[in-house]
Amino acid sequence: MSLCLPSVRGRVAGASLSPLVSSLFFVNFTPCFLRRMALLSSTSLSKSLPSSSVSSSCPSVSSPAEYVDWQRHLGADDPTETYRFSKWPIERGIVFFWSSLSIAFTNLKPVVPGHVLIIPKRVVPNFRDLAEEEVKDLFASACLVASLVVSKHKADSFSITLQDGRDSGQTVSHVHLHVLPRFQGDLERRPGVDREEQKPRTREDMAVEAAALREWMLQLSQKRESCI
């Protein structure tokens, strides 16, 4: 599974892209990569993954998501923090993943089950205007969230999509990544991910899904702890 994005040249928010950020524009999402990503981004993601020794000492670990200490990303650090998606407030109940600079939350108009969104906490309309640390944190978070939804929905593929600018299909003026677990034939009749005609869900439905993802994160963390 891989993510390909256009190469980025020049500067982001006045700073050159680091080797880590540059490498994120073509990445292979293997278990080894997921472990390395969390370690490399330890300043923003709190050293989410243990060393590779876990895999050798714990034969019951069967997916990349089981390497992650998900409890570090459940938002217990600051329960008073508030968020917005462009001009719309985000209820804490629909958020399931927190890092220092990003959050992930359930989607009002999912095109497939498990379709979630990741945004920088700071409201920034366009990707090119993100600070370097925000870029690193956003994509490191995407790696972790992708492993989570793939594990939860028992998929073996996923898509990560960034639509930047009106002509790309972006409909909300806040940088956001779409993460979708994928199955054969799931989008044959529904191209695109920012679709105005998609029927919205209730906030209650979104909160139920977020709670289920948080519970899944706890279960995965407990399984990991039993192996350490």
From TrEMBL:
The active site is at residue 176. Keywords: Hydrolase, Nucleotide-binding. The keyword Hydrolase applies. Its EC number is 3.6.1.29. It is an enzyme of class 3 (hydrolase). A motif (Histidine triad motif) lies at residues 174-178. Residues 81-189 form the HIT domain. CDD domains: FHIT. One of its GO terms (molecular function) is nucleotide binding. It holds the Pfam family HIT. Substrate binds at residues 107, 163, 169-172, 178. PANTHER family: BIS(5'-ADENOSYL)-TRIPHOSPHATASE. This is Diadenosine tetraphosphatase family protein.
